[in-house]
Amino acid sequence: MAFDIDMIKEVYANMAERVDKAREIVGKPLTLSEKILYSHLWDGNPTTAFKRGKDYVDFAPDRIACQDATAQMALLQFMQAGKKKVAVPTTVHCDHLIQAKSGAAKDLQSANSTSAEVFNFLESVSNKYGIGFWKPGAGIIHQVVLENYAFPGGMMIGTDSHTVNAGGLGMVAIGVGGADAVDVMAGMAWELKFPKLIGVKLTGNISGWTSAKDVILKVAGILTVKGGTGAIIEYFGEGAKNLSCTGKGTICNMGAEVGATTSTFGYDDSMERYLRATDRSDIADEANKVREYLTADEEVYANPGEYFDEIIEINLDELRPHLNGPFTPDLATPVGELGVKAKENGWPINVDWGLIGSCTNSSYEDLTRAASIAKQAITKKIKPKSDFGINPGSEQIRFTAERDGLLQIFEDLGATVFTNACGPCIGQWDRSDLKGEEKNTIVHSFNRNFSKRADGNPNTHAFVGSPEMVAAIAISGKLDFDPMNDTLINENGEEVKLDEPMGIELPIQGFEVEDAGYLAPKEDGSDVEVIVSPESERLQLLSPFVPIQPEQMKGAKLLIKAFGKCTTDHISMAGPWLRFRGHLDNIANNTLIGAVNAFNKKTNFVKSQLTGEYGGVPDVQREYKEKGIKTIVVGDHNYGEGSSREHAAMQPRHLGVAAVLVKSFARIHETNLKKQGMLALTFANESDYDLIQEDDTFNFLDLAEFAPDKPLTIEVVHADGSKDTIKANHTYNNAQIGWFNEGSALNVIKRENAA
Ligand code: MIC
Ligand code: SF4
């Protein structure tokens, strides 16, 4: 199940040679990110110095991870590629499709029955194509990857935006859409624009109530949700060395929330300790032999301004714990200052739930720190005011935490321990305490807090914090509680104060697990049958997309002009819709239903130019599709922020949307649109967004000459007959224009394979 050590030895052997070569070519000392990138070039030895933020580069990742909600579409595409086996070690993890309701045992049983068809499909496809399969209940993809597969200096991709979590173990781990993963599974190169580099220097030391989570909550406040776009964030400095490996994982995990391509840390003692604790001493021994390659050259961290495109410095001695939110993970507020803000904004002060765990924060250290707070509620006789929910990240963590009495502490406070799965983090939460869409506040140690994300209620105000802070706030039941300064009244009427959290980095008796939940694939899976019933409402075999012709883009209609934040959750909602992730036509019925229409500020209410009537976005779009009329979607900044789900591109594509024209894109979503043969365009002049009106028709004047670095010209015809001619930029290279011309990247692979 674990990584093949010979393969890692080979990666390290290549690394030494290639990094030395790269240093020569680049002509200066190298950052860690560059070392990993240059040692994973598809063509082997480096021969060119790449321009950051400009050059497209082909890479050869060491492995791939997929989770159930994205793997279905990825594997449905891979099945079309005509290959016998995956070319690169790959795993599938069943974690998103498990609802949190009554507690682990019941919830898992019910997921196993309601999603049996999908789990069986994933298991059989995995078995057939040589993919490792992690059963439902085994854990959340990123925790399982950190425990089993991540290794310093490696490169991996995963069909989930939080794949970046593995940066905690010194990897370059990147979230991608399924179609990107399919390329690599099929034995092809993986293409990425050579990233820019942001250096974060951590000085001082974390102590007291401040935790690793607060580093990234602070960074999110500085960079905002789009500040990391197109960049790798590399953390360094004394403060970085003093963080645990899993703490580093938490920081890297939430790099997705600032749009960063990934984040990483240089190899150090904390990573060595983690590798040895997770039964991978052989990897630690190998990593120790090439230590200097697994971190930046000395000159880089001594003089970072010369090597990074941007530098952020954070003094951990001064860093205060934060709570970020609501509705966006970059709205950072130091704990203690939330009372005033909440009052000003009308956020409910009473906290109904404290949720601990998820892929972001369920390490042993996290659970011990949170438990040290929870325990005080018992010893100091404070009755917790909010409900507690716990989502362990893996069966290994759960088993170990149970053995060591940590879960019992939470259970003594009435906590519900949910399945080792995503649950409330992705709208898979059947919350019994709310009747309707009541306004309420919750705190959690997850990463995202977009509208409706936890429980489907647009009025749930979710705040993100560290597990120990979540525990403290949940005990107090007040958003404005500051455990560092405030006291609570206990059951005896006495004033009591919570002591600082105490954590244990790694279990003293080691990790333990009885059944980790892993199924190895057959050596030869050619006789394994994969069944997809034509009647299924959950799974649907794919048919190739038909190329969009330039003539069809004369007379294209506006489907929706989205106003403000439009994340992948707005474009293809999760929660109950996760059940259709393997059925393109069914899931297309949620297309853009969360996006706010700029003309009436309503969701799922757009004008059909065919009838003049208003209707839901998917319904109106289906009318256009029926008439063979192409449409376009217009959006604001950072369009497609959040998830890697390629459904957010495939659904509009399936329904006949041809172009998405926005002020700026989130990286993964832009690639996903390109892969599916659509036009992903940005306004050359941002203020042209304001020109777009509800009844607009678009004429793409020069699409027949679609070429790299050449903006497209679009004539926008308004209802009164007046016209504006605008320019749209794009980042397509020749190969990507090929995807557009052939209908999708997959069509290209199929053609090449058939040849
Ligand atoms: C998320 O955290 O938003 C998800 C759900 O894990 C997604 C993947 C998905 O939509 O299936 C992600 O982060 O990529
Ligand atoms: Fe699952 Fe939430 Fe992590 Fe996404 S962020 S992988 S939904 S736990």
UniProtKB/TrEMBL annotation:
Bilayer-crossing regions: none
Keyword Lyase (UniProt): yes
Reactions that this protein is recorded to catalyse: citrate = D-threo-isocitrate
Pathway assignment: Carbohydrate metabolism; tricarboxylic acid cycle; isocitrate from oxaloacetate: step 2/2
Cofactors (names): [4Fe-4S] cluster
InterPro entries cross-referenced by the UniProt entry: Acnase/IPM_dHydase_lsu_aba_1/3, Acoase/IPM_deHydtase_lsu_aba, Aconitase/3IPM_dehydase_swvl, Aconitase/IPM_isomerase, Aconitase_4Fe-4S_BS, Aconitase_4Fe-4S_dom, Aconitase_dom2, Aconitase_mito-like
Alphabetized PROSITE patterns for the sequence: ACONITASE_1 (PS00450), ACONITASE_2 (PS01244)
Gene3D superfamilies on file: Aconitase, Domain 2, Aconitase, domain 3, Aconitase, domain 4
Keywords: Iron, Iron-sulfur, Lyase, Metal-binding, Transit peptide, Tricarboxylic acid cycle
This enzyme's EC code(s): 4.2.1.3
Boundaries of every Aconitase/3-isopropylmalate dehydratase large subunit alpha/beta/alpha domain copy: 34-477
Name of the top EC class for this enzyme: lyase
GO molecular-function terms, A-Z: aconitate hydratase activity
Keyword Iron found: yes
A Pfam family recorded for this sequence: Aconitase_C
Domain Aconitase A/isopropylmalate dehydratase small subunit swivel: 558-686
NCBIfam families recorded: aconitase_mito, PRK07229.1
Similarity comment text for this entry: Belongs to the aconitase/IPM isomerase family.
Protein name per its UniProtKB record: Aconitate hydratase A
Native organism: Euzebyella saccharophila
